[in-house]
Amino acid sequence: MRIDETHRAWLIISVIILAASTAVYVLYALAAPHGPRGGSAIGLVFGFTGFGFMIYAGLLGGRKKVPIWRLGRAQAWMRGHLWLGLLALPLILFHGGFHFGGLLTTILLWLLIITVVSGVFGAILQHYLPRIILERVPMETIYDEIDRVREQLRAEAEVFVADLCGGVPEPVAIELVPEGGIRAGGFTAMRPRGGGGAQYGLTEEEAEPIRSFYNTELLPFLQNPGQPGSRLADDTRAQAAFTKLRMLVPPAAHPVVANLENLCEEERQLTRQARLHRVLHVWLLVHIPLSLALLLLSFFHAVIALRY
Amino acid sequence: MPRVRTTKTLAQRIDLNYFNRPIPLRRWRFWLCLILPVVSFLWIGWKLAARDFQPYSSGRLSAGHVLLTRDCTTCHVPEKNAVFFEYASDQACMTCHDGPIHQEKQIRERVPECGSCHIEHRGSTRLIATSNQSCVQCHANLETKQGTSTTYFKTITAFNTDHPEMAIFRAASPKDPVTIKVNHYVHMTKKFRTPAGDVQLQCKDCHRQPASREPWKYASMEAAPVSTPPPASGPAVKADLYAPDPSRALMTMPKFAESCSASSCHPLQFDARLPDQVPHDKPDVVHAFVVKKLEAYIAAHPAELREGFEEERRLPSRPAPAAARVLTPAQWVSEHTAAAEKLLWGKTCRQCHSITITEGEPLPKVADTNYTVRWLQRARFDHDAHRGFDCKSCHEKALTSQDSAELLLPKLATCKDCHAPGPAHVESRCFECHAYHDWSKRKEVIPTFVPPAIRARLQAASTTGH
Prior knowledge:
Largest sheet of chain B: 2 strands, antiparallel
Number of strands of chain A: 0
Helix content of chain B: 25-40%
Number of helices of chain B: 14
Oligomer: heterodimer
Order of helices and strands of chain A: HHHHHHHHH
Shape of chain B: elongated
Strand content of chain B: under 5%
Strand content of chain A: under 5%
Largest sheet of chain A: none
Order of helices and strands of chain B: HHHHHHHEEHHHEEHEEHHH
Helix content of chain A: 55-70%
Radius of gyration of chain B: 39 Å
Number of strands of chain B: 6
Strand order of the largest sheet of chain B: 1-2
Distance between the termini of chain A: 42 Å
Shape of chain A: elongated
Largest interface: A-B, 58 and 54 residues
Radius of gyration of chain A: 29 Å
């Protein structure tokens, strides 16, 4: 979610809550005989408020599980998650008087710190990365389908080369759609593509550079785009490679070379997208599980602390 | 034919059921979301089942209570008629400790709970280290039950701001009530003449802590056959002067026998014929000692009962006595006792003591020393904690004072030079000098607590029948 002007109200409310809490805490800390304590009346207010904010932030996950329930807009929940979750940290620090306390409270405070910091990190990523993806990955596809699209790119490349050269030495057999799967486009999508190579009128000798390029560089790159050392993985070096290839083949084959270059470009963008997507979402592996543990242990802490 | 990317061609590449397929990132997230809370729950449950409450502790216990780290229920006992709460109440504290009241006239409603001043679970801190606010909540505006004015200072908020000067200095003319005449200037002069030669005395050569075992530098016990009599028969205040104080907090009165007499500077010899020195004691003891020694002497030297007249020693204005006279032993002892006591009461003892000789009284009266061992009656001061400091850095007049009545005690401003808030200073909170509880009203607690380790051993022994 982008943090834009729609967050203004939340920002103002959060700043007011933080300022008021800080003022109360400072006065309380100065007046408290032995410094601020979680068990004092004000300490408990801070604790319960912070815990309430944490619960609200945690409920976002539940809200996402029931998108059709009329529980307010998901964006409003997300904004509340961001700002109230962020406020939970200073409130809990006020609650504990900036002391880590015993083992359970130390674990809780570290869990909260990691959760909030990872959340802030995620919010920053969510704010900037989508725009970066938009700019740097114009050929973006659905992340879950990247592997499948890659297979299709390989098949597409094979078709292009087969059309030009009249067949490739080692044809790649690719199942485009899994058994029982449904593909967008209906029957049109099942139509076979490509055709004979006679339309380009290339001799075997003229087609050899493309065939060789396909077998030695293009296909390995498409099969394993992350393999280091491939010059097609780099924009500049790939451009140079295709320029050189164009010089080796007759002008009639240049459209096919352009198509292959376009395929490589898409492959590189998919790699970039996958990397950016991982960056964009991997923090959730820390944020969500730890926040669940935090909520559970916080509940125990509240019960035990109130009792003793 | 150029490669064309239309919405349709792009859509054709997508499997519409893609969201049903497991994605590694999502799978990891699911399992972590399951495992971490379950592990947390199991951990808490395991600790509860094992009755190990240590993880729930809000912090480490203070050094004095560290034995109770795994024994929370010693202090956290269920409240009466309470089904849930188990706070550490005053009652639990009183099981082991007594907390005498602060002041008889204290407003009972304002007596704080133990835990409001002595904060536990803050690590190995001293529980006595209470904050100023604990005291200031009353002493910032001291009130009495009846609302009448108090004899104490009404407003004290901190040592460095509005703490009053020590009581002794608040008097119109502050004086040391001691009656012993000691000239500090003479004793601390650079070349102080002694029978052993010129020396430079140090403060500790006379002023010592009772627990000090260091030998006296200028004293020779062989040269000091007299000893200070045990104070058992004396008044209580005097007994305190010599009572060993293992705390090393206070200085004791300089001991005459060890620091004055033993150094041969102030011998208590009373007769040229005898090497003995009178004991440093009350006049009646001294008198008995002199008589006893003279009787013994004359018994051993009966020839001296006959006293010859020495013409050359006769004053011209005096008539010439008979050439010689023979005294009875009683007469001889009586005369020589009178002469010895004239020397003692008139010069030897009077050099330091205030002595009153009354006509018709056989023995003089020696004024009480009025030596003040403890100047701060409502505060404590520990000389031992300041042992590294040069004495005169606080007792500025100690080297120049010539009058015993001059007060050599440092004023509070001297204390404030070091005891102040801030990192470059030492502790300045109230508890550093003052105690809240009036320990003179202490009641002994019947101990019932058994340390956990010993309790376990006793239980094991009772189980096995040994």
